[in-house]
Design goal:
Blueprint (H helix, E strand, L loop, with lengths): L1 E7 L5 H10 L8 E7 L4 E7 L13 E2 L5 E9 L2 H9 L11 H12 L1 H7 L2 E9 L4 E6 L8 E5 L2 E5 L2 H4 L11 H10 L12 E3 L4 E6 L4 E2 L3 E2 L3 H10 L6 H18 L7 E4 L4 H12 L6 E7 L7 H11 L2 E7 L1 H6 L4 H5 L8 H12 L4 E3 L4 H5 L3 H13 L4 H12 L3 H9 L10 H12 L4 H9 L31 H11 L1 H15 L4 E3 L5 H9 L13 H8 L4 H4 L10 H5 L4 H7 L2 H7 L4 H13 L5 H23 L2 H6 L6 E5 L1
Parallel strand pairs: 2-19, 14-15, 14-17, 15-16, 17-18
Antiparallel strand pairs: 1-3, 1-9, 2-3, 4-5, 5-6, 6-7, 7-11, 8-9, 8-10, 11-12, 11-13
Helix pairs in contact: 2-3, 3-4, 7-22, 8-22, 8-23, 9-10, 9-23, 13-21, 15-20, 16-18, 17-18, 18-19, 20-21
Length: 667
């Protein structure tokens, strides 16, 4: 796993600039570094390497193809690169220089062309490819968006990088904040693709590639080489027709192969184990195909309502893994909060980033690669909101929309404290916690004319972000434009599709990538093997949700390796007690970030709106902790980037002593 960066623009000291930019993301590749320039064209590519496959100098990057035409800087892993090599050899002998998948990708492009090569890749990747013959620069990203890639313009230069902090070193960088992106962030907890928090910069969408030409002045529209929408629609028109046993057999076979491919490494390998269905299935299939105990890692909490470590330990004991668990206190978890904005680079407020970072640090003590169970919820109807929304809409759609609008308007006028007061007169077993806030959420949901907008309202963290962000207009996204959704009869399928396109890529996978790469750990996600994704979408909903059980077919696979008595329990997830922290140990920190003077001086948020939310939250009158955490993470991010521009590459300084080799090369 690695970090990539580059630019198309003439600079007197292009090599030095590229090295400085790459040093900002040295944590992604602490082993070696390299720079390559086409000085005449003005193209410079840089690379930071975390060596995983072929640890020799034959794997150094940027790498030039055998015929000298292509130059590649690449972040990722091609799990089927041996299969690709075998296919290439049938078209003529190849004198391979080493055994790296980087060389395999280069020769695949040289032989088949870029688009065909992309279609044959099974892996996670983001890369830049310079074609010296056509004088074109190509950028590409993997199917599900496991690896990040930012691109855009800084002055007259075309630039790209794995992380935004690499772009901070460019002499033309201004870092102007896009207020419209801030509005998106408040709605989602993240800035969805292709948008970026900075003006002039974008994220390359998953499963797309683009071409830059004419000295960096012409940038094509991103082009898809694989379409999840087509996969989803094809699954609906030509579904799997076998029975439940055949479906379970097929899924188990695909998962075993996906896991086996992702166990390819020349360095120590392990897995995150939470004790949930997804990670437990991945670990079970790893152990079934390993001749030694698999190393597994779990973070535990002393608070039982948040702790899954006991379940993970029981599953590890049954499977016979070499298990490591670390119990952390609330103080341990809070201690990493100041690091979050620097690591994530862009405002990001999914609080489960905290335990994800902690478990990554734990794993990195012993391994360099760790497999993860992410993706199972989006593929197999795992989130509770899917069934909740399905049930609610089945009832609500029977009510005429004007009636729902009227009820919504009435509920919006009910003061939350009166609703909570009404609850207090009921017996304790009938009371609904935070009833006033739930009524406000229900009011927003009722005011949805279509089920697609109903789901948008359900998953929105802030319903009217423009009222909080000054001078902002919320941009279009897939979630806000139902006409762009695939035609599906099943509402739960629609929800899983939207989450796969947005939440999975821009939240879950972003969280995993930044947390793991911050500690130079490569994370791999077997459930997102595109063959497995395509099969999952061919399964009718009854294979995914049956008799009140989400992820039914995944449970069936796991039951072949782990007794149901160890796995049948409610979903917990990586929860963090933000609400309690804001009223306790984080109160002073939050107060300083949300002070009225600061809010007025910076001018991003409406001071009166934010201060009202903060005061009501602290008084216990309203539960605004989720929305406030978004604003706090943005405020902390602003402080972080100011320090980064002033002090330079803090992360690079930590890894400089580990770097060697690679060097600087040019045409």
């Amino acid at each position: 796993m690695c970090g990539i960066v580059g630019f198309w623009g003439h600079h007197r000291h292009a090599h030095v600039l590229a090295q400085d930019m790459a040093s900002r993301i040295a944590h992604r590749g602490p082993n070696t570094s390299g720079v390559w320039s086409d000085e005449h064209a003005g193209v410079t590519l840089a690379h930071r390497r975390l060596a995983i496959v072929d640890l020799s100098p034959a794997g150094f990057q940027p790498m030039v193809s055998r015929d000298g035409r292509f130059v590649l800087t690449y972040n990722g892993e091609l799990y089927n690169h041996q299969e690709i090599r075998a296919a290439l050899i049938t078209q003529g002998p190849i004198a391979w220089r080493g055994s790296s998948d980087t060389e395999t990708l280069l020769e695949a492009v040289s032989t088949w062309g870029l688009e065909t090569a992309l279609g044959r890749c099974n892996g996670m990747f983001a890369f830049a490819l310079w074609d010296r013959a056509s004088r074109e620069l190509h950028l590409a990203r993997d199917r599900m968006g496991e690896k990040p890639l930012y691109w855009g313009k800084i002055g007259s230069d075309f630039v790209f990088a794995s992380e935004l902090k690499a772009l901070h070193a460019h002499p033309g960088w201004t870092g102007e904040v896009d207020r419209d992106a801030v509005a998106l962030f408040l709605r989602h907890d993240y800035v969805p693709s292709p948008y970026c928090i900075h003006k002039g910069i974008q994220k390359l969408p998953a499963a797309h590639w683009l071409t830059v030409s004419q000295a960096g002045k012409c940038v094509s529209e991103p082009k898809s080489y694989w379409s999840l929408e087509e996969v989803v629609e094809r699954g609906g028109t030509t579904p799997f027709l076998g029975d439940e046993v055949a479906a379970t057999d097929k899924l188990e076979s695909l998962m075993k192969d996906a896991v086996k491919l992702r166990m390819m490494a020349d360095v120590p390998l392990g897995a995150f184990l939470s004790g949930g269905y997804d990670s437990s299935t991945v670990v079970a299939l790893m152990q079934a195909q390993s001749d030694r105990p698999v190393q597994t890692f779990t973070i535990g909490y002393h608070e039982k309502s948040y702790n899954e470590a006991e379940h993970a330990k029981a599953i590890a004991a049954h499977l016979g893994t070499d298990h490591t668990e670390l119990y952390v206190t609330s103080e341990d978890a809070r201690a990493v909060i100041p690091e979050l904005p620097r690591i994530w680079d862009e405002p990001f407020s999914d609080s489960s980033q905290i335990p994800t970072l902690l478990v990554s640090r734990l794993a990195r003590r012993d391994v360099t690669v760790s497999l993860s169970g992410d993706g199972g919820d989006e593929l197999f109807c795992g989130y509770g909101r899917y069934q909740l929304a399905h049930n609610m809409w089945s009832w609500l759609r029977l009510l005429p929309y004007p009636l729902r609008q009227g009820v919504s308007a009435f509920l919006e006028r009910v003061p939350p404290h009166l609703a909570d007061g009404a609850m207090s007169v009921l017996p304790p077993n009938l009371r609904i916690k935070a009833f006033g806030d739930r009524l406000a959420k229900l009011a927003a949901i009722l005011n949805s004319e279509r089920r697609e907008l109903f789901y948008r309202s359900l998953v929105s963290h802030t319903h009217r972000p423009e009222t909080l962000v000054r001078n902002a207009v919320e941009p279009w996204t897939l979630l806000s434009e139902p006409s762009a959704w695939p035609v599906l009869t099943e509402f739960r399928d629609q929800m899983m599709y939207i989450d796969s396109k947005m939440y999975l890529t821009d939240d879950i996978l972003t969280k995993l990538d930044r947390a793991s790469m911050a500690v130079s750990l490569e994370s791999r996600v077997p459930l997102l093997d595109h063959r497995l994704v395509e099969f999952a979408w061919s399964l009718p909903i009854q294979f995914k949700h049956r008799r009140g059980q989400p992820k039914w077919i995944l449970r069936e696979v796991l039951s072949r390796y782990v007794p149901r008595t160890l796995t049948e329990r409610p979903k917990m997830g990586f929860r963090v007690p933000i609400e309690e922290w804001l009223r306790g140990p984080l109160r002073d920190w939050a107060e300083s970030l949300l002070s009225e003077d600061r809010l007025r001086r910076e001018g991003f948020f409406s001071p009166s709106e934010v201060r009202t939310m903060w005061q009501e939250n602290q008084a216990g009158a309203r539960r605004w902790h989720s929305q406030l955490w978004n604003i706090l993470m943005f405020q902390a991010w602003q402080d972080s980037i100011s320090e980064t521009w002033t002090r330079g590459p803090a992360l690079a300084d930590q890894t400089k002593s580990m770097s060697s080799g690679g060097g600087a090369r040019s045409q």
